[in-house]
Amino acid sequence: MDLAQLAAYLHRDLREVSKLANRGYLPGKKVGGEWRFASSDINHWIETQMHAFTEVELEALERRGGGVCVATELLVSSMLTEGTIAVPLHASTRASVLKELVGLAEQSWQIYDPEVLHAAIKQREEIGSTALASGVAIPHPHRPLSAKAQGESVLAFARTCRGIPFGAPDGGLTDLFFLVSCRDAITHLRVLARLSRMLLRPNFFEDLRATETASDVLQLIERTERELVE
Question: Class for domain 3-66, per CATH?
Fold first, then answer.
């Protein structure tokens, strides 16, 4: 993408995007004196910045590539089932959490090659931890998996018995985990944006930690998501 295309992609003013690029805030390079940006690098940049987005910016990201209807559809809860939820998850290390999350994702019957998914989320964590300061982490592949490895988009949720070190920016422990594996980059960003909006809801973290069964989790997530879209 050039600067104009990137500004349209980000739904931002061209002058603002130009300043961000010239100050080194955006991942890009100049070719023949003109800025060029790879969509995969920009999508990763959006992920790293999403925690600071306003609700309006997150909702705009949800609408990307899907028209008006996406703002009123259930994204997160439609990808979850009781089989892809574990409360509690009996894992106590970063490595064991990732392995168990992949096992949960397999219960969707959409993961054809769990080893590929496991390697992908491990690689993404090596690039930078997906843990946030609020005790939640969102492991996901850096790029969508191939059709040989995965069918439809999948989401899994787990809560560990106690917080574990997972690389949160504030050095805190993490006990809430959402594994997201989508088949395309647009859906991936939309799901992350919807999740981010849900995480902004008052008491959502506390309510997740108070759930006792997978059914409770699913009902809470669907209820919270419906409050956003209805």
Answer: mainly alpha
